[in-house]
Amino acid sequence: MTTAVDDLVSELATTWPAEFRQPVSLAERRAHDALAALADRLQQGIIGSLPYFRATDGTIWWITLGGRNAELRHYADDLRSWVFPYQGSADSITSVVNAGSGRLGQRIAAVTSEGYLRWTTPAKNALEVLEVLSTMHAYLASAPPLQQGSAPSLSSLQLHFAMALRIGDWVAAAAAVDEIDRRQLDQAHRTMQMRIRLLDARGATADLVAYVVKQEAWIFSNPRRIVSAILRAVFDVELAPLESTGHFQDALAKFETEWYRRLAPLLEQAEEASHLQAYAAIIEQDYAKAALLVPKLSPAAAAYVQALLPSAPAAVPPATPIYDPAPEIAPAPTAEVRNGASFWTSLHGAVRDGQQARARTLIEEIDSSLLSDIEFVSAAPDALLELLSDDEIESRNAPRILRQEVMSSIIDVIVGSSGFPLLQHVEIYLGLADCLTYLRGTSANEADAQLLLGLISGVVYLNPTHADRCAAIIRGWWTQRAIVARLPWLIAALDAVALLHPDPTSLQALWGDGLTLAERKGYRLTPSERKTWRRVGAAIEYSATDVATLLDPVAAVESDETIDTLAQAGLKRIAIVSLQETGAREAAAELIARTGAEVVLVNGTVQGGQTRRASEADLILFVWAASSHAVYRAFDDCRDRLVYVQGTGAVSIISAAEKWATDGMAP
Questions:
Q1: 0.70 surpassed by pTM
Q2: Given 70, 337, 550, 631, which is the most exposed site by the fewest CB atoms within 10 A?
Q3: Residues 6 or more apart from 414 whose CB is under 8 A from it?
Q4: Is 392 helix (H, G, I), strand (E, B) or coil?
């Protein structure tokens, strides 16, 4: 390498000012010595930078090389901290893989095959930059190593996996995933997705189906390629053998009894699952959709589905939904046509490259009007997931900070939009909930937990078919930090999904985990809390005897009984504003029993008599995840009496009222 470095230095030196090569003054001597030190670093195999003076525009192209890809990324972060607060723009840092075929490119390629960084500063500041680099290198050399040994990083293992998958080296691919799991370098659901990709690539469809069932993979937020792999395998293993022998009725029955509830959420985002989608449409009695899918089916399957359709599909009234969606307030039309998919691609690139100015310019474009762009909405869930799973973003400070900024802006715009919550944005809400769980799952900030509760409550209210996925998000948030302080959040979250969950008994484990933690930590439930846990226990189909038995170890003794501050608040009228009538009515019954107050329910979407009566209440409990913006504006003049309820269930409503009373807000 010594000869190669010498050749590179000689090539670059032809562009250096004469005074740097043959110094006279003290300043020129310092510049000469700094350049020599930079060349020495490269001779020793240490990452460093050398200047290429461009006479055409008065700038310097700095070439950073001598390290592997990860080292170059860390060096770029160091440059942002040391050089670019004062010299040039950090956006000029560019990662170059191919040095080119020119003379200089050949010299660079002879020194490194790992690629290099190129960045720009004004030529007039050359001495200052050289001195900063000298100080930076000296400081970094004196710092202790951050990590000992040569254990591969997460990003390198993921790269090994991708390469092994491409060349068909299944043993190496499996070894990479096993190492990530063994060292717990990544979240379990992501290594699960890697194993699904491996099984799919191997064509081990039977093993893939068995693995998907064991892991309950359908409850996670999966990229499209994972969804496609799951659906393809289920069809090939479970249904295709029946179809191949003409037993289409048996295939439909098997799908309906064993797979429909599991796969229905996945089918909504699938692109190539026509047979499964057609069966789902028949089950849902969505005959118009089934008719559209007929041309995409095999001839025999098409004939079977066609025979199930009414004779005049166009005259069949639309199927009655299994839930009553909230009336939607359509966003105002915008004259500007935006390419939403390109927006997400550009934003991801800016965040990944740490280009703050570019990213923030794009962030400023995220406003409520953008939510009317169909491409923006449809691309958002996958785009959010990609932002979370990009290893380059995760491994560097600047991109991670930008990612947080992006997520905050998106949440602010979507949750604060005039139509929130909207049925067509449910997938975005789920994506944001996944983001919060991933980025803030260990947070002790109550606001994070309550925002998550509001998002999942809104999703379940709008589309109960997502209750299972919301339960998985609740499980993910709870297990990342299972502490006593999160018990009220846990029971409120379970209350939000229990009544609409297709299998409420699947929530019993989480309910039991909460009580087990309370018992282990010596926490005792107040009478009000016991009533709440008892109500949710019944909703998840525990018997009254089982609930009493499980609650007994955490029941407060007589001396622990507390004063009911809500009953002592002196309330005359309480208003509950929510389109989720079941939870609102349950809460109203309890509030009447405990306070004796009149309770007004506001379940409309526009201002009127209900909102006028509610505005006169002593306490207005506003369920923001199940209320319209128009109704919210009815209380502009009485915000001092308005309390936000984070969930949609009775537990959340009662908890908000109790907190209001405990905090001394009662009249």
A1: no
A2: 337
A3: 371, 420, 425, 428, 429, 432
A4: helix
